[in-house]
Design a protein that fits this description.
alpha/beta; six-stranded mixed β-sheet; 5 helices; globular
């Protein structure tokens, strides 16, 4: 006698709910802060670029209802050539912050870019030129500046 498969309405409804949850858009107020790229001529500022990204992430993690992807998840993509759309989809965020650090002597240029994952377009971008007087002070200052700008841009 052949086996007969029967699917109850409850099972079909559960499967539909799971499928809907899997394709639901990420929360609008969500972000992943990727490791900033070291673009210094000697490639000797990785500690500075990673520290800046981590300070920004920590500053954003304490902001109201903003959901921030974990550092280990975001930094997984360091030095990987993947699209921001794919990264955002995998991490379940609506926005990605990426950036770079260039150091020349005691001068530092930091570029930060907020990208909307849904379409890959820039929401906001800024360049900061600063003097390197102390690594921690610089990281705190830039995290504060970028954090304030992102709060405005994301409406949190």
């Amino acid at each position: 006698m052949p086996l007969r498969r029967s699917t109850s309405r409850r099972t079909r409804a559960s499967c539909s709910a799971v499928a809907s949850a899997l394709v639901a858009p990420p929360p609008t107020k969500s972000i992943a802060v990727l490791a900033f790229a070291d673009m210094s001529p000697d490639k000797d500022s990785e500690y500075l670029s990673d520290g800046i990204a981590e300070e920004i992430l920590n500053a954003l993690a304490g902001v109201g209802d903003l959901q921030v992807a974990a550092r280990t998840s975001s930094f997984y993509y360091k030095d990987r050539n993947e699209s921001l759309r794919d990264i955002g989809k995998t991490l379940g965020v609506a926005h990605v912050l990426e950036g770079s650090v260039r150091r020349q002597g005691e001068k530092v240029r930091i570029t930060a870019q907020l990208i909307r994952v849904a379409d890959g377009f820039h929401v906001w971008s800024e360049i900061y030129d600063l003097e390197l007087k102390g690594v921690f002070a610089l990281q705190d200052e830039i995290a504060g500046r970028i954090g304030a700008q992102l709060q405005t841009s994301l409406g949190v």
